[in-house]
Specification:
- With about 90 residues, this protein is an alpha+beta fold.
- It has one domain: 2-Layer Sandwich (Alpha-Beta Plaits).
- Strands 2-3-1-4 form a four-stranded antiparallel β-sheet.
- A hairpin with a 2-residue loop joins β2 and β3.
- The longest helix has 16 residues.
- The chain is globular.
Length: about 90
């Protein structure tokens, strides 16, 4: 399993639009092969900080989602910065 943790700084006044954009991306991802799940999180101490945690079965499926032509890209006009890291799951035995 591969999980993408994406930290976004939303632009003040654009929070609702940013959340809707990430919700749209989630609905698109749900239709794709290998999608496991996504959480959209808002930081309690910084309401402009939005983090998504998205899991896929394979790294190839992560890449396929990133290049999906139907997916809004780069936070659009709703985020000022983003930091994205992909992690590989380490199964606990």
């Amino acid at each position: 399993m591969f999980t993408t943790v994406s930290i976004h700084q939303m632009i003040p006044g654009k929070e609702d639009s940013a959340i809707e954009m990430f919700s749209t991306n989630t609905r698109i991802a749900r239709k794709l092969e290998g999608f496991i799940g996504r959480d959209i999180l808002i930081a309690v101490d910084d309401p402009l900080k939005l983090t998504t945690v998205t899991s896929w079965k394979t790294m190839g499926q992560v890449q396929a989602f990133k290049t999906n032509p139907d997916r809004p890209r780069g936070g659009g006009p709703y985020v000022s910065s983003e930091d994205i890291t992909v992690y590989e799951d380490v199964p606990v035995v």
